[in-house]
Automatic annotation (TrEMBL), chains A, B:
Native organism: Actinoallomurus spadix
Domain HTH tetR-type: 22-82
Protein name, UniProt field: TetR/AcrR family transcriptional regulator
Key words, A-Z: DNA-binding, Transcription, Transcription regulation
Binding region for DNA: 45-64
InterPro entries on file: Homeodomain-like_sf, HTH_TetR, Repressor_TetR_C, Tet_transcr_reg_TetR-rel_C_sf
UniProt xrefs under Pfam families: TetR_C_1, TetR_N
Signal peptide: none
Length: 245, 245
DNA sequence: CACCTTATGCCAACAGGGTTGACGTTATTC
DNA sequence: GAATAACGTCAACCCTGTTGGCATAAGGTG
């Protein structure tokens, strides 16, 4: 198995090898992310990855336990990048807002990586570190455990969900995910006005709107709701619907 | 092409054919959804679909232009089911809340169909009908076009995003998407307390929370925010962040 | 130094994926 | 009855992830 290989190879610096190749987890992840960004999900295959690395496709399996494992590593890497440079001020609301925007921005910088948002939850290092930070922040702010967990989940879910959908709007991946502006305009503007008056009337608006993000506003709403909950009752309030505004 | 085939075959009732097979768009979609629900994304392949239909895999291509086209049809079918039975009362906020919950529930009834949420936007009949209804509702309520489009998008995005993530929490699909309770508990509870005090302290809560949905609360927040915007200013307010509560 | 174990890379091969084209049969239409 | 479209099968193609065997390099130990 590649488990022990991981630990040993990680702490060692190799000079050169048979064909002069020097692969590593970091290099493979970096290359995979590049392929994903430049050529979309279709571009990230075992064979293409091997080609981009100048190595045989099967070599990747010396470092990762299959393609699924690699994908989890990619998601973990992105989470690590999102958290990198994040500094907590002690103001949980401000800190979470900052982190949320960082996660969102990181995924938007790798639009094709929207696939990865479904691959969360793995017990990998970067993710767990981020989770620890978030939970610690919430508990430190005075949220009881159930509330902290609830907010923690809502926070992560929201960030990843919006990132995935925003990214899907920005990119032009495989036909099944096609959602770019051109498609929208072409699809909606071509509808007969008689049968679809509402859509045709706002076809251009629909197309133009595909580029903007609704996440910051939604994030602020969620944080405001959490703050109101904290201010109202120090004790936990269960899972009931929060009616505000 | 299958385009003309579609129209002609749809309006006709065929008694029997060569081997006694009577395929149709509806039957194929129904079977594909069943495969997806029972065996997950891995279970929905051209070959398995052919097997389940008792037909040759290539036969599907007489009805759909490739697997992508079929997947879009599945998403369209689900949207149609979600909207079926939906009755508008004229109260846009109440109606949208109802529709949102319907969409959410429909996708939760087909957990494995979370993949389909990424396949939105296609110009297919059921979807366009739903879009028309939503946009008509918002414009009728007095929202100017830009605001209506913005809310329309936020509404759909939110419903699909939460459905996808909630469904991912409920199911146990391929390794890359693994996110079930067992995994959560096993993953997080096994962490050393010394290095991960926060996570280990709430490990059970984390696992238990995977089954509940945060969508209704988020939906209410969004609708409340939209209502506040409508009450405050009849004219459109652009894309600025809404600070409420 | 020799020696053995581990790490690392390549190669060939397998099962299974989507998709296509030719072909035959059936159903419909004129 | 003849022509045409629809429908289903079959064999084949190229792609995918993945594996086992083999060769070489590296690292540690005598």
């Amino acid at each position: 198995m590649a488990k022990k290989v991981v630990q040993d190879a990680e702490r060692r610096r190799r000079r050169r090898t048979k064909q002069g190749l020097v692969l590593s987890h970091a290099l493979i992840v970096e290359t995979a992310l590049r392929l994903l960004r430049e050529h979309g999900p279709q571009g990230l295959t075992a064979r293409r990855l091997g080609l981009a690395l100048g190595a045989d496709p099967s070599t990747v399996y010396r470092y990762f336990d299959g393609m699924d494992d690699l994908i989890l590593a990619l998601a973990d890497e992105l989470m690590g990048r999102a958290v990198a440079g994040w500094e907590t001020t002690g103001d949980w609301r401000r800190d979470l807002r900052d982190l949320g925007l960082r996660i969102h921005a990181t995924y938007l910088a790798h639009p094709q990586a929207a696939v990865l948002t479904a691959a969360r939850v793995s017990g990998r290092s970067q993710e767990i570190a981020a989770d620890e930070a978030i939970l610690g922040l919430l508990r430190g702010a005075g949220f009881p455990d159930p509330a902290a967990v609830r907010i923690y989940h809502a926070f992560i879910d929201q960030a990843l969900a919006f990132a995935a959908l925003d990214a899907a709007s920005l990119t032009l991946p495989e036909p099944a995910l096609r959602a770019d502006r051109t498609i929208w305009r072409a699809t909606y503007a071509r509808l007969p006005e008689r049968t679809h008056p509402n859509i045709t009337a706002v076809a251009d608006l629909l197309a133009a709107r595909m580029n903007s993000s609704a996440y910051p506003a939604a994030l602020d709403l969620m944080l405001a709701s959490a703050a109101a909950e904290l201010a109202a009752a120090p004790r936990d309030g269960g899972n009931e619907v929060v009616q505000s505004v």
